[in-house]
Design goal:
The complex is a heterodimer of chains A (about 180) and B (about 450). Chain A contains 3 helices and 9 strands; from the N terminus they run ααβββαββββββ. By secondary structure, chain A is of the alpha+beta class. In chain A, β8 and β9 (about 175-180) form a beta hairpin. Chain A starts with 12 loop residues before the first helix and ends with a strand. In chain A, about 30% of the residues are buried. A two-stranded antiparallel sheet of chain B has the order 1-2. Chain B has a two-stranded antiparallel sheet with strand order 3-4. Chain B is mostly helical and about 450 residues long. Chain B is globular, with a radius of gyration of 25 Å. Classes of the chains: A alpha+beta (about 180), B mainly alpha (about 450).
């Protein structure tokens, strides 16, 4: 048992300090716990998360064709790459802003699946439709601030800091995938 | 004290009955009737009252728009079109709200530059100034979220680009963006929360404006000479002198405002935003509303510095360009307030003003196109870098140096001496001087 300090009025100072700090700490904890639901309510809700995966049938996509599908409200570019596109992606030059080999970005070389959102400030790059500007490297071109992506979706030129994101996906059969 | 105020105030028994229980009448009389204001305000001192008028206008028109607007991604765009076409007077209320936003920024920017030129931020008015900067920040947040609500192409893509700025924050950036969106893109949850906040923030602005006015009435108003009133000869009661002057200014303002609302309602708008938001199609060019263009130029101009990537450096510089205003009272160390008596500062103020206008010009142009057709290599991004650098040089180098080395002109003995001296007796100034004691008698 510790020695108790008492002032001239007989008040127990240690005990008072302890009660003061304990009450304050308790109130702060409760306060933080009460604020959390309000912060958390801004995070994606269950129904938004429920739409988190998308299945795509690849059978109808011819070689050289691209399609755009929607996954979590974002455009996903799926390109059935030609032989030249695969081989040009296979030889990455030195000094890429975000170095990555083509093999790390695809499950099967003929299918490239990337999120169609420029990593600079979130615009949708051009290059999906026939006749659109595909930039200097034959992949995609972002019209907002001039970022050029190659046939592996890697950033080659312009202000974007990273390659086009590769979403998590898996082949369900030879001709269908599930994204997410 | 309240007894005295009731006696001087007008009103009968009911007013006295209320005032002795809740002194609103004596408060109004003291703060807006008798409030001793320097007698030498020029028309630049009208813009505070104009900002107050616009704040009320925006809240009233906004409330009426809220009664007809639907905050849903499938319905928002059409509900705005319905307001424009089908709702009685809806077009008028919306056009006042839309253009009122632009005029609010014009008025507030003039109000801020007024304060910068006449040294209104200097001791003892630092807190008054800082409350004003908070109001500016709240206004910017409110305007940004309001622009998203019509759910046009620029609403959507502006929201996407601006919220993506937060992804520049290391480590937690992407989680913060997802949190702001309430999903994985700007979508219905985003629109809903922006609507709620766009409704709420103006009332926070009202609160801070209240504090701004309280702080003003504690220190008293600055004036074009920048010297404190020394005697009753230096001030006039706010009413009727400045209520009349503010009313006249309001009349002039309303003529200009109405001309835009009725004859050029799309003057400040981008036609692109009359196309419904499409998350698969980015517009050719994403430009913010004109009042954000200087900050947009700063955002785009800053290159990577040391280990900070360009995106993050741009974001830091953009927010820094506003937050530096909080430090202005301590960066501008000159003892003399008014630019009238600071011969070198006047020039640098003018250069700073031009610099800000140039930044706005640059913000609206594609960064990689040449400024002059004859000089291919000088692009807008280069002009943006120069003007961005000057913006910060002005605050961090020019102002502290001026405070140290500039020799100000001699200050007049008092406001009344300066005012009466320039008129050499007689005329309106002299009659103003005699009006003052009569008012008090």
């Amino acid at each position: 048992m510790t020695e108790q300090v008492q002032d001239h009025d007989g008040h127990d100072e240690d005990r008072r300090d302890f009660l003061y700090i304990a009450t304050g700490a308790f109130a702060a904890t409760i306060g933080a716990a009460a604020i959390w639901p309000f912060i958390d309510a801004w995070n994606p809700s269950a129904d938004v998360l429920a739409q988190a995966s998308t299945e795509v049938d690849l059978g109808a996509i011819e070689e050289g064709q691209s399609v755009t599908v929607v996954w979590r409200g974002k455009p996903v570019f799926i390109r059935h790459r030609t032989g030249t596109e695969i081989s040009s992606a296979d030889e990455p030059p030195d000094g890429l802003p975000d170095p990555q080999s083509d093999g790390d970005r695809v499950l099967k070389p003929e299918w490239l699946v990337v999120v169609g959102i420029c990593t600079h400030l979130g615009c949708v790059p051009l290059g999906q439709k026939v006749g659109e500007n595909r930039g200097e490297f034959g992949g995609w071109f972002c019209p907002c601030h001039g970022s050029h992506y190659d046939t592996s979706g890697r950033i080659r030129k312009g202000p974007a800091p990273r390659n086009l994101e590769v979403p998590e996906y898996a082949f369900l059969t030879d001709t269908s995938i599930r994204i997410g | 004290m309240s007894a005295h105020s009731i006696e001087t105030g007008s009103g009968g028994g009911l007013v006295k009955w209320i005032d002795s229980r809740l002194p609103i009448f004596s408060y109004m009389q003291k703060e807006y009737g008798e409030y001793p204001a320097p007698r030498n305000f020029n028309y630049w001192w009208n813009f505070g009252a104009l900002a107050m008028f616009l704040l009320v206008t925006m809240i009233v028109t906004g409330l009426w728009l809220a009664m007809q607007y639907t905050p849903h991604v499938d319905l928002a765009f059409d509900s705005v079109q319905r307001i424009m076409r089908d709702v009685n007077s809806g077009w008028f209320i919306r056009l006042v709200h839309v253009n009122g936003g632009s005029f609010f920024f014009i008025v507030v920017y003039i109000h801020i530059f007024r304060g910068m030129y006449y040294g209104s931020f200097k001791a003892p008015r630092e807190l008054l100034w800082m409350l004003g900067v908070i109001i500016l920040l709240l206004m910017m947040a409110t305007a940004f979220m309001g622009y998203v609500l019509p759910w046009g192409q620029l609403s959507f893509w502006g929201a996407t680009v601006i919220t993506n700025l937060f992804s520049a924050i290391p480590l937690v950036g992407d989680s913060i963006v997802t949190w702001l969106w309430g999903g994985f893109t700007v979508d219905n949850p985003t629109l809903n929360r922006f609507y709620a906040l766009h409704f709420l923030l103006p009332f926070l602005i009202v609160g801070v404006v209240g504090l701004h006015v309280v702080a003003l009435h504690v220190t008293g108003s600055n004036n074009p000479l920048g010297i404190e009133p020394k005697s009753q000869q230096d001030t006039v009661p706010f009413h009727p002198y400045y209520t009349v002057k503010d009313s006249f200014g309001l009349g002039v303002f309303l003529v200009i405002f109405a001309a835009v609302v009725f004859f050029a309602p799309d003057f400040f708008s981008e036609p692109e935003n009359y196309e419904k938001a499409d998350f698969l199609k980015t517009p050719e060019e994403i430009v913010p509303e004109w009042y954000f263009l200087p900050f947009f130029a700063i955002l785009r101009s800053v290159p990577a510095i040391w280990f900070v990537e360009a995106k993050l450096a741009g974001v830091i510089a953009m927010f820094g360009s506003i937050f530096v205003l909080f430090a202005l009272p301590w960066l501008d160390t000159a003892k003399v307030r008014s630019g009238k008596f600071r011969p070198i500062f006047r020039w640098f103020f003018l250069i700073f003003l031009v610099d800000c206008l140039l930044l706005g010009f640059v913000g609206g142009k594609p960064p990689n196109s040449p400024v002059f057709e004859s000089i291919e290599s000088f692009e807008f991004i280069d002009l943006g870098r120069i003007t961005t650098a000057w913006y910060f040089i002005h605050f961090f180098i020019i102002l502290p140096l001026l405070g140290r080395f500039e020799r100000p002109l001699p200050l007049p003995d008092s406001i009344s001496a300066a005012v009466l001296g320039s008129h050499s007796g007689g005329g309106p100034a002299a009659s103003g001087a005699t009006a003052k004691p009569m008012e008090k008698a």
